Amino acid sequence: MNTHDLDDRPSGFHPLHVGHLVMGLAFAGLVGIWAVIQTGNVAAGDVRWLLPLPWVFAGAAGLLAAVVSGRRRSLAEQRTYAAARDAHEPTDLDLIQEEE
């Protein structure tokens, strides 16, 4: 990535690290479930259904983030390619290929 790409971004934008997002959400979910268990609001049999929930939700958020950031990245690459193509000055090889 060059400095020109950084200037085109809106203020406050930074790359998303999907692994950090997933693990942060999973940790927050596990802490939340631990707090609910400690307050006694959950029966012992319900714990086995609660513990996988943070991993499922964090995984779903990670998949969504990967799709969104991949789409944004591919759009930026397409814009870069189009700008480079439009700025391309024809060379002798291009002129020869056009004649054929």
Shape: rod-shaped
Provide mean pLDDT, rounded.
Answer: 76
β-strand amount = under 5%
Q: Count the DSSP helices.
A: 5
Description:
With 100 residues, this protein is an all-alpha fold. It contains five helices and no strands. It has helices spanning 3-7, 18-39, 47-50, 53-86, 92-99. Helix 2 packs antiparallel against helix 4. The protein is rod-shaped. The mean pLDDT is 76.
Summed up:
The chain has 100 residues and is mostly helical.
List keywords for this structure.
mainly alpha; 100 residues; 73% helix
Write the layout of secondary structure elements.
Blueprint: H1 3-7, H2 18-39, H3 47-50, H4 53-86, H5 92-99
Helix pairs in contact: 2-4
